[in-house]
Amino acid sequence: MWTFINDNWVDAEKASIHVSDLAIQRGYAVFDFFRTVEQKPLFIDDHLERLQHSAAVLRLKLPYTVNELKQIVLELVNRNQLSTSGIRITVTGGNAADTYTPTTPNVIITQSPLTMDAAFDAQKGITLITEEYVRELPTAKSINYLMGVYLQQKVKDAGAADVLYVKDSYVSELPRSNIFIVNQQNELITPDKNVLSGITRKHILQLAATFLSVKEQPVTLRDVLTAKEVFVSSTTKRLLPVLNVNGQPIANGNPGAVTKELYTQFLLLEKQITAVT
Amino acid sequence: MWTFINDNWVDAEKASIHVSDLAIQRGYAVFDFFRTVEQKPLFIDDHLERLQHSAAVLRLKLPYTVNELKQIVLELVNRNQLSTSGIRITVTGGNAADTYTPTTPNVIITQSPLTMDAAFDAQKGITLITEEYVRELPTAKSINYLMGVYLQQKVKDAGAADVLYVKDSYVSELPRSNIFIVNQQNELITPDKNVLSGITRKHILQLAATFLSVKEQPVTLRDVLTAKEVFVSSTTKRLLPVLNVNGQPIANGNPGAVTKELYTQFLLLEKQITAVT
Question: Which terms under GO biological process does the entry name (chains A, B) (predicted)?
């Protein structure tokens, strides 16, 4: 397997960066992650645009243009010959002699095999707990997952699948997913503030707008608990129904019709896009 | 220069870790940093105890005992033959195949030259700005300095030297320093909550207790602005007077007598400790 680091193609097993890098020194870096479907990077333009945004928020100067990054990704895909995979582009704060001030970023592009199940299992829903927290610099996809990783034990102890961040009664997102609700008026709503602009989120909003009312606006925990349907979205999950939050079942505790319909449409979109040469 | 990584002694210029390490993937790692004075690690027992605490908070299993780490540090000092230096021990979340769950930590111990000025320049005081923020898992010295590094530009734009974190009107700490005030009743006060237990802070509190009233308790921004003296402490700064916060001068805008006395006493302690063989 090949990994790309700063203009070099290296054996993935030997892909390393110097310990003076600000990612290791100060957790200062951004990244993006997307899938390939039959060797085609899914929504790559969206992901590269978001990576640019993340880098800009952290004031990191991307050493490559978006088009150059795209070419490198295509070469990576061609070299590794993985059909279904995850590709991660990490842009770090660079090797910092003073261990604190960003320099020229190190750029790391890795590819790993990924298993995706296309079937939407109606029984498959998840349970969430909540935590009072909002991510730092939430519109940037920084590598700061201190709380997400830390909270894994609490999630496990609660027998839940993941954690929903709530701050002053408003929900924002999960460590690696966005959240949506369908309210009693059949409107699809997702939080507008303190969230990462998920790429799956973006396409769900576009798909949903063709058949129901869609809103990006503040969502309270109470809105979640009283919703007809709740689901989360992410690159690796697509859509996943939420059936229970903090021990309280959502509606009747089964995946809802809108969630199922959106999953079907999203899968179709994914197939259409990756069928194009 | 030598660096220690996972039982190996490597050339500092080639000291690297694999990109699957959770420090790079998720900013998940802890560290500690201390000085050597004439080749003697200063307050090493305090720092190793704090490193143990930080690792425990993040649920990282230290692969070495405190005594083993101490021996490695002494060998590092002996190999590198630097008189005045900074030593950093980083304990990461380890190489994670799933890019999210901590595994066996990577342990990195680096040493770098450090210039310390022993003279306390009475003119040398700093200006701070404030930012509404509290560190995540504040009692652990994690590598999460996302806000600290990010705020450097704001600090620079304001012509300040550093930033003081304030949350709901209570001050906690600076990105890399603790804060102290001397109030109008000549009491030395430092925040008790949401702070890293600084090793310099600890020794200042002990020194100060011999000649004035010392309290660890909540401190408001107003307490800071109305103090007789304000100073910050850290391993590389020892004590540094704060003369101005958000454009408002502290007292008469000059370093105070308690600050100067504590600096003198701290320097003496440092010399006494490192004079012992």
Answer: amino acid biosynthetic process; carboxylic acid biosynthetic process
